[in-house]
Amino acid sequence: MSGVRQCWIPMLAAIFLNAQAYAGEIRNLTLEEAVQLAISQNHALKIARLKVKEAEQRKAEQRSSYFPVLTDHALADENTGLEHVAIPAGALGTLNGTLVPYKNINLPQGQKNLLFNQATVSQPLTQLIRVHQANLIAAAETLISRDELKKAENQVALDVHNLYFGILIARLQKRAAEQQTTYAAEQLRESEDDVRAGNALRLATMEGQAGLLEGRQSVLTSDLQLTDLNTEFDNLLGLPLDTQLDLNPTVPTAPELRPKEEYLKNAWDQNPDISAAGDTVRKARAAVAVAKTAYIPDVSAYFTNSWQDGVSFLVRNFSTVGVQLNWEVLDFGKRRATVRERESQLAQAEENLRRLKDDVATEIERSYDKLVRTKSLIEVAEQVASLRQESERLAQNQLTQGVVTISDRRRASSATYKSRADLLQAKLNYLVAWAELQRTIGQTPALKEHSGGGNQ
After folding, report:
1. End-to-end CA distance of the chain, in Å?
2. Whose C-alpha in 129, 148, 216, 389 is 20 to 30 A from the C-alpha of 395?
């Protein structure tokens, strides 16, 4: 029994360690890798790609309407009774004094078993006008689905930027909170020493305890925020929700701004909303044309081959060639109302295109101004971080000389960490604003065209 137990213990230990390793899996990612991973694995984007395939198949289905249609109709039945043709004696007169026929005759019509098969090839003629416009509608719907996919990809890439940068900022804020907690703990220790020495009141100790608790609260809050951001990021990337992410803190540097008019021109050509609106206009125009074709008679050419076995007075095998016309002469205004409805939809689509162009121009204006403002914030944050770093250096020198206490040194370090967090947040806000501008002009915010970068 002890031998069995000794055999199971290593196996259970190995299973436990493997489970721990799997649960604590760490995924190293750069910003560009995160964007590519999200675009390839995000569930919403997978659904959008399937919708594109659906539209492409619908377009292929509509295209087949150009070609002839071959149909076959087969019939096999058994009759319980047969019709007869009765010819009385002498119904056809007499011949040399003999009745014709000389007696009553019953002629059965066919057989009890009937086999019939008819194959028809039909080619639409005037309907091709309607088919052409229907194909234009299907092509526009395919382009619209691709535009929607591109829009979704751009939005997912922007969400990746927001979460990636949010995690980096939250981590630095957590370190700043930990520094603040260390400072508060050192200050509390010094206050307690002063109280015991009679150099301070009990109030100083209470304030120190409150500061320490506030620091711990900030650390716990940062931990919760990081956990939430990490889970949300895993879901966005299509990863298991317990995947731990090790994000590369080296982020790209956005290029210098070009003239605003250049971004606006790019948006007219690339923005998926504008492209989808333009495709919707073309779809609406084709729908108007389809409605007008209802006034045209449907003319089709057809060829039919028929074979039967069971009807005696019909040819066993025969063919038919012809033209078929179907025309709805009077509908009491139904077609006219349909045309006007489609024309109204076309007017809506054209107005929506103009609206979207104005909205995109407004969005570019807002993003451009945001970039200018955040760039100024970066300059201010850099100056603050530089001053805080110099203050920390002076505090360290003064601590060595015995001029300041350890808590003063900790406070300077905490302020330096906070200024670095503020500087990183300003830089990342600038990159988010740039990503928003990229999305608005119709580019995927992957920051591939950026160069340089710095480790914050």
Report:
1. 59
2. 216
